[in-house]
Write a structure and sequence with these properties.
The structure is a homodimer of 150-residue chains.
Chain A lengths: L3 E2 L3 E2 L1 H8 L3 H10 L18 H17 L3 H22 L5 H49 L4
Helix pairs in contact in A: 1-2, 1-3, 3-4, 4-5
Chain A binds a DNA duplex (30 and 30 nucleotides) through helix 2.
Chain lengths: 150, 150
DNA sequence: CGCGAACATGACGTTCACGTAAACTAGGGA
DNA sequence: TCCCTAGTTTACGTGAACGTCATGTTCGCG
């Protein structure tokens, strides 16, 4: 068993393994439009992925996990990723129209800004929670120091 | 409509409203043991709560939201809260056995430490994600600066 | 060419965290 | 006392995010 298809590409099982999930989840994400619905299907009909797909899936799971986004909400994020992909495609396909480039870049930036705002809000809430618990902990520790018998 | 029962106590509707949720959720949490299963039921069978219950519910929802804990996992947290409640009870009921006090305090501290470790891990992951996105954003902005036509 | 492991599709099952409906009771102002 | 709102329990329904099973196809080493 080679586990890797020719061309350094991955089949769904390997993608799932490297992304820390299952093939079922990959297919489900594809069904929801979180992954390209036709990722290079040579002959046999088996899906083939690249390393960037691994990163993409991991990114999705990370956003879902850390921000508590639903898969539907992740759809909006995917748009940003797609813009990034388009950007890279246009880069590697030679220099294109500067106006078009600006458009793509500007869009990508606003998407990133949106995600960053979500993250900062979360981080703030988390910090507040941490402060609360640390305050309580300090109180408990203080009481322990006052309590005889240690 | 008074909305508040005698004694400054709250009925389930008001508790839910103040905690930012619904009566159904309150009953469900009680069923799961996240709330005391018999909160002072005078005669009529209506549940009655106090201000501290509001805080307790809000706390549960905050932990769930920010740490992504399941309701089952929240059960462990509830133990900590209960320990805290016991502690306060023993305080207000006069000074009790110091050894017992130390026991409760130590337990409360370890519970807080556990929650804090979860929070710090989350905060770290969130910070890493934020760094990633900010790096990307900087790259996009840099490209924008290099792209003519603005 | 054979064969077992992995993949494809479709459909049904499952868990969590509640929502919602039904049928009845309690509270309290007019 | 009447009556409306809000509460009670029981039970079934729901959406999200997959798991699992059945059935058939493909891959690639021996």
């Amino acid at each position: 068993m080679t586990a890797t298809a020719p061309g350094g590409l991955l089949r769904i099982g390997e993608l799932a393994r490297r992304a820390g999930t299952t093939p079922r989840t990959i297919r489900y994400y594809e069904e929801l439009g979180l992954l390209p619905n036709a990722p290079a299907r040579p002959a046999g009909g088996h899906r083939l992925y690249g390393e960037d797909d691994v990163l993409h899936v991991r990114e999705l799971m990370r956003l879902r996990e850390l921000l508590g986004l639903s898969l539907e909400e992740l759809g909006a994020v995917v748009e940003a990723e797609e813009a990034r992909a388009m950007l890279r495609a246009e880069f590697e396909g030679g220099v294109s129209d500067p106006a078009r480039l600006r458009e793509i870049l500007t869009q990508a930036r606003s998407h990133l800004d949106l995600q960053l705002s979500l993250i900062r809000r979360r981080a703030g809430e988390l910090a507040a929670l941490q402060d609360d618990l640390e305050t309580r902990r300090a109180r408990v520790v203080g009481l322990l120091a006052e309590t005889p018998g240690g």
